[in-house]
From TrEMBL:
<comment type="pathway">
    <text>Pyrimidine metabolism; UMP biosynthesis via de novo pathway; UMP from orotate: step 2/2.</text>
</comment>
<feature type="active site" description="Proton donor">
    <location>
        <position position="96"/>
    </location>
</feature>
<feature type="domain" description="Orotidine 5'-phosphate decarboxylase">
    <location>
        <begin position="17"/>
        <end position="261"/>
    </location>
</feature>
<keyword id="KW-0665">Pyrimidine biosynthesis</keyword>
<dbReference type="GO" id="GO:0004590">
    <property type="term" value="F:orotidine-5'-phosphate decarboxylase activity"/>
</dbReference>
<dbReference type="InterPro" id="IPR013785">
    <property type="entry name" value="Aldolase_TIM"/>
</dbReference>
<dbReference type="GO" id="GO:0006207">
    <property type="term" value="P:'de novo' pyrimidine nucleobase biosynthetic process"/>
</dbReference>
<dbReference type="GO" id="GO:0044205">
    <property type="term" value="P:'de novo' UMP biosynthetic process"/>
</dbReference>
<dbReference type="InterPro" id="IPR011995">
    <property type="entry name" value="OMPdecase_type-2"/>
</dbReference>
<dbReference type="InterPro" id="IPR001754">
    <property type="entry name" value="OMPdeCOase_dom"/>
</dbReference>
<dbReference type="Pfam" id="PF00215">
    <property type="entry name" value="OMPdecase"/>
</dbReference>
<keyword id="KW-0456">Lyase</keyword>
<comment type="similarity">
    <text>Belongs to the OMP decarboxylase family. Type 2 subfamily.</text>
</comment>
<protein>
    <recommendedName>
        <fullName>Orotidine 5'-phosphate decarboxylase</fullName>
        <ecNumber>4.1.1.23</ecNumber>
    </recommendedName>
</protein>
<dbReference type="InterPro" id="IPR011060">
    <property type="entry name" value="RibuloseP-bd_barrel"/>
</dbReference>
<keyword id="KW-0210">Decarboxylase</keyword>
Length: 268
C-alpha cells in the first residue's frame, strides 16, 4: 500500500484540496429532520457520504459526536469509515487521543491498527502528555502507512494559553512543530502532520519548512476564510489541508446543495 502522504497527494490532485468534517451536532440532525438516535446519526452520516463521497478528497468524522450514542454510535463510526473508504476518499478520525505511553499503545492499536475497525487513514493526537508519549502512534502510522495529526496551534481562542506559553526553546506549539518535523525527516514517510487552526490573524509559530500535512480547521463557522490561508501559511501553503464542517453541513441535507457548498469553498 502507498503511504498516507502519497494517497493524500493523489486524492487531492484528483478531487481538490478540501477535508469535510462529519460533525453530527444535535441541532444539525434536528434541522435535517433526523432523530437524535444512533439510527438518525447513521442516516445523517450516510447522507453526507452518499452526496460527497465521490467528489471530496478527505472526510474527518468527529469521534465525540459518535461517542454520545455509546456503543451503537461507535458502530456507526465504523460503518461510516468503511463507506468513506468504499467511495475512494480518505478519512481522518478526529479523536484527539494522547496518554502515557503504555496506554497510548492501546489508543494507537484502536485508531491505527492494521485491521482495527475504528482505524481510518489518519487520527488526530494531543501532545499534552509530551510529544514522545505519542510514539506508539507514530510507530504504527509508519508501519501501516497511516497518518497522524498532532495538535500544535488549535483554532479556538483559548488554545494560545497553553500552546503559546514559552517552553525550553520557544513556544510549546513550536516545540511540537519542530519535533514532528524531525521525526518526519528520520522516518521519511512524512506520516506526522499537524493541526493548525485557520482562525488566527498570525499563527505565532513558524511552519514554513514543515515537511508533513497540515490540517487546518476553523474555516467557515469559526470565522476562518479560505482566501486568507495562502497569506497565513506562506511557504507551507502547499502542505495545507483546509477543513470545513458546519460551513458545509448547514447546506444539507439536499445532496446538490451540499455539493454546491463544497464547490464554493474549493473555488475560494
Ligand atoms: O484546532 C482545532 C482542532 C479540531 N477542530 C475540530 O474541527 C471541527 C471543526 O468544525 P467546524 O464546524 O468547521 O467548526 C470540529 O470537529 C472540531 O472539533 C477544531 O475546530 N479546531
Amino acid at each position: 500500500m502507498s503511504t498516507y502522504r502519497q494517497r493524500l497527494k493523489e486524492v487531492v490532485a484528483a478531487r481538490g484540496n478540501l477535508c469535510v468534517g462529519i460533525d453530527p451536532h444535535a441541532n444539525l440532525l434536528s434541522s435535517w429532520g433526523m432523530p437524535l438516535t444512533a439510527s438518525g446519526l447513521e442516516t445523517y452520516c450516510r447522507t453526507i457520504v452518499d452526496a460527497l463521497g465521490e467528489t471530496v478528497a478527505v472526510f474527518k468524522p468527529q469521534a465525540a459526536f459518535f461517542e454520545v450514542y455509546g456503543s451503537a454510535g461507535m458502530a456507526v463510526l465504523e460503518r461510516v469509515l468503511a463507506d468513506i473508504r468504499a467511495a475512494g476518499a480518505l478519512s481522518i478520525v478526529d479523536a484527539k487521543r494522547g496518554d502515557i505511553g503504555s496506554t497510548m499503545e492501546a489508543y494507537a492499536e484502536a485508531y491505527l491498527g492494521k485491521d482495527s475497525p475504528l482505524a481510518g487513514d489518519a487520527v488526530t493526537l494531543s501532545p499534552y502528555l509530551g510529544f514522545g508519549s505519542l510514539m506508539p502512534a507514530f510507530e504504527r502510522a509508519v508501519a501501516f502507512d497511516k497518518g497522524v495529526y498532532v495538535l500544535a496551534r488549535t483554532s479556538n481562542p483559548e488554545g494560545g494559553q497553553v500552546q503559546l506559553a514559552l517552553g525550553r526553546g520557544g513556544s510549546v506549539a513550536q516545540e511540537v512543530v519542530d519535533a514532528a518535523k524531525e521525526l518526519n525527516t528520520r522516518a521519511r514517510t512524512r506520516a506526522i502532520g499537524l493541526v493548525v487552526g485557520g482562525t488566527h490573524g498570525s499563527l505565532g509559530i513558524d511552519v514554513s519548512d514543515f515537511n508533513g500535512s497540515i490540517l487546518v480547521p476553523g474555516i467557515g463557522a469559526q470565522g476562518g476564510r479560505m482566501e486568507d490561508l495562502p497569506g497565513l501559511f506562506g511557504a507551507a501553503f502547499d502542505n495545507v489541508l483546509p477543513m470545513v464542517g458546519r460551513g458545509i453541513l448547514q447546506a444539507g441535507p439536499d445532496a446538490e446543495a451540499l455539493r454546491r457548498r463544497v464547490s464554493t469553498f474549493l473555488a475560494e
